[in-house]
Amino acid sequence: MNPLEHRIGYKFRNSLLLAEALTHPSLGHETQRHHFDNQRLEFLGDAVLQLIFTEHLFRLFPHFSEGQLTKLRSRLVSREGLKVHSINIGLGTYLMMGRGEEASGGRQRASILADAFEALVGAMYLDSDLEVVRRFILDEAHDDIQRLTHQPLEVNPKGQLQEILQSISPKSPVYEIVSQTGPEHQKLFVANVLWDGLALGSGNGSSKKQAETAAALAALKGKVWESGTREAISESEPEPQITAPEEEPVSEESLKKRTRKKAAEDVSGSSSGSIPT
């Protein structure tokens, strides 16, 4: 029993099936020779995983609808999830691949590790039977399944944030990738989420999607839009104040004319009054 077989607790009767599962297509492309690879076993293993998880979830959540069960299964068979299983058993160490692929970080690349895990499952199924593979899969995914039982509804920070913001304004949040660093197989992305002129949060992750999700989580915690709304109200324009127009200065000549006119009006008023008897 080789180290990988010891780790997965299964001894292959046909060692060629295991070798095929561990052979990446880049090996044949680089050598320019006809060489088997793990793509066909990957196809088979994907179907076996789907069947095992589908049946298990069907029994575990008897009151869930088809749509809910589909979402749960997608979390179990996601690329990131299968990558973790590959890392747990050290699968990347045993892969056979071209030098160029290996130099570019192929042994740590999520897609390659996830595909290799599916191929291993397919090879194990052909070498044994469904029950053997079922025990292996459910044992490897035990922690993931436990998390599903405690939190069956998927947490969707981006969806929650959009729902909250659109209850305030029809504008949707915008995500921007502001930087990416590191080698190709270990990229680190940084994302900002903006809305209505406000910077709501920032986050990072090994993929653009993870960085955007982290930014949405930061925004949900910070709730910048609440203070932003209050500031917008407090900074609104003050009501215009009405002031009386200033009187034009009166010249000395104008003042004399007004005085003479007033005196004339007083004399006129006296003469036109009633005659005492």
Please, could you describe this protein's structure?
This protein has 277 residues and is mainly alpha-helical. The chain has 2 domains: 3-150, Ribonuclease iii, N-terminal Endonuclease Domain, Chain A (Orthogonal Bundle), CATH 1.10.1520; 157-234, Double Stranded RNA Binding Domain (2-Layer Sandwich), CATH 3.30.160.20. It is 60% helix and 9% strand. The chain contains 15 helices and 3 strands. It has helices at 3-8, 15-21, 25-31, 39-60, 66-76, 79-88, 91-94, 99-103, 110-127, 130-140, 142-150, 157-166, 208-222, 224-234, 252-271; strands at 174-181, 188-195, 198-205. The protein has a 3-stranded antiparallel sheet. Strand 2 (188-195) and strand 3 form a beta hairpin. The radius of gyration is 39 Å and the shape is elongated. Residues 229-248 and 270-277 have low confidence and may be disordered.
